[in-house]
Amino acid sequence: MAKPRHVLIGGGSGFIGQALTDALRRRGDKVTWVSRSAGENRLTWDALEKDGLPDCDVVVNFAGQHILNLSRRWNDAYRDDVINSRIKTTQIIVKAINDKAAPPATFISTAGKCFYGTKELTAGEAPEELDEYSEPIGMDFPAELVSQWEAAAEGVDTSRVRHIKLRIGVVLGAIERKSYITKPWRIGKSRGFLPIIRLPFCLGAGATIGKGTQIFPWVHIDDMVGVILHVMDNPETEGRYNAVAPNAVTNEVFTRSFSKHLKRPVLWSIPEWVIKFIVGEERSSILLKGQLVKPRRTIESGYVFKYPEIDGAMADLVKITF
Ligand SMILES: NC(=O)c1ccc[n+]([C@@H]2O[C@H](COP(=O)([O-])OP(=O)(O)OC[C@H]3O[C@@H](n4cnc5c(N)ncnc54)[C@H](OP(=O)(O)O)[C@@H]3O)[C@@H](O)[C@H]2O)c1
Q: Which CATH number goes with the domain that contains 109?
């Protein structure tokens, strides 16, 4: 059996970080989170800057202000928070790794599939397949953000540390429906994208987003964790890997699969201007435009997706418990 490792996770308290932590602890690894708040098995960012990196085998960074927090108004302060929280935490981690006499063997930096940017397709034009070797097809705010975020991670000393760069699709976590009306707050306790869109569906007003033809690169949370463990455990892996399911679908196919498993109808389509009004022009491309991202290197490296198809993923994630 492999020797238990000590894994340090920036932003480990988040949706993906917690799922990874559970998987690592289940197999006997030790996990410490780097967080804004102190606590058991946590290290604050200030302590990391001041005292340096503790002895560890792997460092993963997920830290960053959520980009689609709909309870917060999209303004300059929020925008700066989204950018700085990712770049600053990455810089702190990179410096701590580089300053360490015996650095960890592996650094896993994360970013989003938005790296590839978006472009308007003309009628009948097929979307271009994008993999880890592809360059961005167009620049928008999310693509700019990801490229700055990735650049901050590039400073790590790769002569001493194996650097894995993950580009993550929209991560889908489990959602449970206990009741339609009496306990709406119990509908989908989990985090991830599904709870964001669940409420209109549960109220019987499910909708596609905009034209519905935009490609939606998604990944089941089990595969998200699976890809991370795969690259962590496989010393031959290095460089970029897309953490997206092999079969991205359009928003319409995604929505129909979600509604089928939730047993609620799709009644309408939310017009683009409403999305732009709610999330702001800059962030709207996340929902209104898409990219056909493929996990080419991830599959070539030997990772086998547990949930390659949206319907299988939804059947697992949308649990009807009443
Ligand atoms: N979930 C997705 O679908 C998805 C898709 C593509 C990319 N990603 C990226 O993957 C990363 C992890 O995703 P996630 O869904 O696990 O995110 P999440 O649930 O929002 O968690 C991110 C963690 O980052 C820390 N954080 C939040 N705001 C911060 C700030 N202003 N400064 C420093 N740290 C801050 C928090 O930890 P503390 O409160 O402990 O400090 C939080 O638990 C994110 O950076 C996200 O952009 C996620």
A: 3.40.50.720
